[in-house]
Amino acid sequence: MYAFSGTMGHVSVSISYLASLDRNIILMNKTNTTNHNPTNLPQLSNFLERTFHLTEHHTTVRREMLAGLTIFVSMAYILFVNPSILGEAGMDKGAVFTATAFSAVLGCVLMADSISMLAGSVMGTTATSAYVESSAGIAIGGRTGLTALTTGALFVLSLFFSPLLTVVTDQVTAPALIIVGVLMASALKHINWDSFEVALPAFLVIVGMPLTYNISYGIAFGFVTYPILMTAAGKRKEVNPLMWAMLLVFILLLYILAIVPRGNIA
Fold it and tell me: Can you tell me where the transmembrane regions are (predicted)?
């Protein structure tokens, strides 16, 4: 009987020991899982704080991401307007959509507007920039590069929606074009209308685009007349040498686009 009791005592102690060991193993596994979880929100928050110094700029992750979303929503119209405009010129709408989104991503991630313009030009699309749209994000509270990265990430996601262009008609993009025109017209107040040599080239650019249905023609009218009028007004030294180079380029462009095709038809 004593032997049996001793045996039962050893068994009881062994069971208690194993139960305690099992609890310790479970606790260790939970601790390791918590420490090594790649989606651990506190660790991600600390990483963003160290990278973007959110507290120093008196902002939060939520506010930065909301500002980035606001900027994206404010300028997302360009993803449909740009292909619609350049598609009428014969360019592939899907390719223009991709180039527009990619150049916007590049500009947002690098936080450099000039890089975005350069990338857009190289890829054959118009320059993608955000001045008014960026102010919308700043008004929400965007203060750091996390806002730009959020906007860039949303443009990356938009690359997968290029097939939607097939269902977007000109009637859908027309209101956006009107808004763009209003925003562009707001810059007219900065033109010195009292100076004829400045006002006339600007006026030719403004009326040249809609009358010729060609952006290149409108810009060419301004670049060709500006150096000539400035020289006639005795202000040749105020003309940047690059303007003279652009004068030659646009004269060549007008010759190629307007005169050469007529010669081929004849």
Answer: 66-85, 97-123, 144-166, 172-191, 203-229, 241-260
